[in-house]
Amino acid sequence: METNNNYIKKEFTITAYSENHIGLLNRITIIFTRRHVNIESLTVSASAIEGIHKFTIVVYETEDKVKKILYANVLLHPDIKIPSSETGTRHQAAERTAKQFNALTLAISEKSKIVTVYYKDEKMRLSSLSELFTKAREALKALEKNKEMLDMFIRKLNVSESLELVTLDDLLVIFQRKNIIDNIAKTLSIYLSELGKEGEFIDVQLKEITSSVEREIELIIKDYSEHFNFEGIIRELNTLDYESLLEKERLFKIFSNYKKKEGALVPKGYRILRNIPILTEENIMALINEFSSLRNLVLASEEDFTKIKGIGEKKAKAIKEYLLKIPI
Fold it and tell me: Going edge to edge, which strands form the sheet with 39-46?
């Protein structure tokens, strides 16, 4: 088996030249220690240039880790012919380097307290923690408000299903709101990626909301899969911006284009049955296969339910009682 010499520890001697300012030795030490590299010896001597000192550092480490330290402390000199929209020297160098090498670069301005990340032709200014928290909380508040609206539409769907009066609008507004929630969640995720560990609590709330929405939508798709090609609907909805999502006529057209058959919109009953805790996934599948629709489930008797494998008297009673009082 071949051994990669880049990952074998050996002795390296690193030479650096600089003016000997107060605190410089401490800064050099930090460069190594924060990467968990121990300095075997460090000597300082005068160089051939007046005012410039020579720093000789000996370490016992892998070549790969030593190279990373050296690369991290190289002054960048990218091609100045590459266009830059920045004015500061540091930011210009970072932007040009990102474009020239298709690399991720970071520029920090101590004076203006601005941190900018560059990657290829893209750039993003990082906000301060206080700014990020404000934006994240506002996004979370908007997310919660839209989740409440979605819950309201789902309750309306419950009523329509119990009365056998489901319309295209009942489904359309749910998927419209779901996509708006997705867009807000994407924006919030960007803020959380910048916050890191500081945003863990908000991240938990985000995941609770989005997982709840995804679960509800998944069941609605199962209920109405015989009526619509939801794969096509979702694909087209995902191409719309916020303004387009608010255009109901456009959404009606999308749903109409992917409608599989005409007639009354009758759910299979997945979503309603999932709300009965005593039922397992196997129970739900067996009931759907036998009765095929929510309408037939509502009309069935307890005795009819007990004929299904895995459904005893206790479960049959729970199903019937729940279907008689579908939450409105």
Answer: 9-18, 53-62, 39-46
269 secondary structure, DSSP code:
S
Tokens 């474009």 map to which residue? 99
Query: What's the N-to-C CA distance of the chain in angstroms?
Result: 68
Residue labelled with tokens 């004076």 = 111
DSSP designation for 8: S
The verdict on 41 and 147 lying in the same domain is no
- Clarify whether residues 187 and 98 are in a common domain: no
Domain identity same for 243 and 222 = yes
Residue 87 clears pLDDT 60, i.e. is over it: yes
CA distance 45 to 17: 10
For residue 14, give the 3-state DSSP assignment. Answer: strand
Which of 27, 46, 72 represents a domain boundary (last residue)?
A: 72
pLDDT for residue 328: 43
Give the tokens for residue 254.
Answer: 């999308």
Overall pTM > 0.90: no
Residue 84 counted as domain residue: no
Whether residue 171 lies inside any domain: the answer is yes
Q: What is the mean pLDDT of the chain?
A: 87
In this structure, what is the dihedral angle of CA atoms 249, 255, 260, 261, given to the nearest 10 degrees?
Answer: -40
CA distance 287 to 216: 19
pLDDT in tens, 190-213: 899 888 888 999 999 999 999 999
46 DSSP β-pair partners: 53
259 forms beta bridges with: 228
More confident residue, 110 or 117: 117
Express each pLDDT in 174-192 by its tens digit. Answer: 999 999 999 999 999 989 9
pLDDT in tens, 16-48: 877 777 777 888 888 888 888 889 999 988 887
Domain final residue, candidates 209, 227, 257? 257
Q: Would 175 be classed as within a structural domain?
A: yes
**Residue 120, by phi and psi: left (phi above 0), alpha (psi -120 to 50) or beta?**
left
Structural domain boundaries, residue 93? 89-126
Of 244 and 108, the structure prediction assigns the larger pLDDT to 244
